[in-house]
Each structure stands twice: as structure tokens, then as C-alpha cells.
């Protein structure tokens, strides 16, 4: 049974069994090239999320999953041996050699601890997924780094070394723990690595919502376009929703969910759902430049958690504003736990990036004290996003966002009767 809450005002009996994977050692993966200017894939990203969940007393309602590094056997089901050998050698390289090695890849940094951290990241997600697919937990959040959805079979790219989600999926399928797995990738970048690995697999449905910008947005390939629907037996099991510009917001994402993602999910009826949970589409993210709120992330999590008895795990991918990712993760975890609060309790979007990640935060000249939960906390099985996030839930799509989703629906109709 879940641990009981300690803070006055929280209900003491929560039915959802929600786990999390976290290991402080993942922060050892760091950029050696320029320590004065933190890399966007900042080692503090996982700590920031964990810290806010802890100070909000949510960790008291969750189960910590013990983490082990992914094994060579598990990793080599996805990645080529020569590539893993090259990562293995980085453990004993000097600084100059590490910098030379990282320059062989696209947007990657390396240190002597990087490969071990990548194995911990993949292993943390694996451990959490096993707990959920086995039924010991209902859902969970993997607070892991380095991220993984860009990592390909034979190369690192886009801050990613090992493809965490692909490694977890291959292990689950091989061990017969699930037959149909759905991946929803809401990172602002297309998860080219996941798509490539499962492009022919009809047992893995991959759905990605990402900035495409005519193929110019990272990873700058036409593989993220809407016409990439899968190959051979996997045809129809790859769905790309490629936004044509920055500025996509709650209305665009919820329109995509209502018109496409959720109907397809219900027809596919997955045994297990993994969310490639990058938060770089969040408001204030300097790279994604979009406007998705924490409330919207909570709503999307809730919608997916309603599918097929709700076996679901979120795995951290991107997200480069520390406060934005922490508050977005907070919303997602609340959705998993079934917690709701009174409308209006969430701070306005203009200041949300300044609230409560530290005991006293000063961000962009705004000082604000720690977040305090009082009688606004509620918890039951009937979590209602209309109560939780009325502005988000009622938001309409932009003209460009609607055009993209409608065109993807038109393409996918030949594969999905629900559309």
C-alpha cells in the first residue's frame, strides 16, 4: 500500500500506487567543455524535479523504486556492439580525448561518468516499468537523465547516449510482460531514435507531437514529417504530429489528443503506455519556444491514464528551464495520484516559472516564497480536469495547429477506423 501523507490537509489514503525512479548519481554526467555556462541538459534537471516533489510532500505518497544500471544484454538488444564499445572506452579517457570523442557526435557532451549515468538512466526506467507492467504499481515517473529518445542504434545525438525507452520496450516484449506498447512522445523534438528502432514493429505504436518547421527544427530531418507512418508490418503504427512553427499551446495539444491520440489509443488498446516526457514545449522553455502549461501536461497525463486500466510510466526526456520542468512534472504526478485542487489555485502563467522550486526563489527579479498546500488538496478516483484546469481544458487550437492535426487525421484514417 502507498505510504501515508504526513502534512496536515492531505488525505491519508490514496488508492493509486505510483512509483518513481531517481538516483542522485545521474548528476555526475556533466559538460567538461564550458563549466561557466551551464549546458541546456543541465545536471540539476532531475534534482529540480525531485526537490519540488519532495517539498510538496508527494514523494510521501509514492514508492521509490530501486535502480540498477541496465545490463549489457539489455542494452545490446537496441544498440550496436561497436557503439557500446566506444562508450565504454570513455570511462578512462582524459579530458582532451573526451572532448574529441564528443565532437564525433551531434549535440552530445561526455565525461568519464557519462556512460555509467546513461546505464543508470536506462536501468531506472527499466526497473520502474517492470514494477508497473507486473502490477505491483499502477503507474510511475522516471526522473532520469541523460535523456534517450534521439539515441540511435549506432550513435549518440541530441544530448542522448542510450535510448532508454527502446531498451525498456525491448526488455518488456522479450519477457512477455506486454504484447502492445504505446509510446506518446510530447518532447518538443521528434524522437527519431525511437521511431527508427520500431518503424517496422506493429506491437509498438509510436506517436510524437513535435516542432518540425519544415524539417528545419532539430533533429532537422524529414523523418519527423506526417507522411512517415511506419514500414512493412509496422505501417500505420507511426504517427507524427509535426507543428509548423513555435508558439503551440494547450489548445493545440489537447485538440491533437481529443481528435487523434486518444481515439487511436482506445482502438490500439495497449497493455502498457510509456510517455517520452520532455517538458521543452512548456511555457518559458528557451529552446522549444512553445506555451504548454503544467495544467495541460497534467490533463494529457490524466487522459492517457484512463486508457486500458492505466498502466503508464512517464520517462523524463528534454526540458531546459529548471522551474518549467519541475512544475510540469508536478502536474503530471498529481494526475497520476488523482489529486485535484480548487480552480484558481495554480499561479498565473506569467509568474508560474518563479514559484517554489527553492525555499526562497529569486528568478528574473521576482521573489516568491515556498508553495504551501492547505485545504485545496483533494484526492479521489474521480479526478476531473474540468475542475482542475478549466482554462487549459477549454482552450481551442490555433489555426496552424488545427490544420496540422486535421491533415494527420486525414492521413491516418486509412489505418485507424476510429478516425
UniProtKB/TrEMBL annotation:
<protein>
    <submittedName>
        <fullName>Histone deacetylase hda1</fullName>
        <ecNumber>3.5.1.98</ecNumber>
    </submittedName>
</protein>
<keyword id="KW-0378">Hydrolase</keyword>
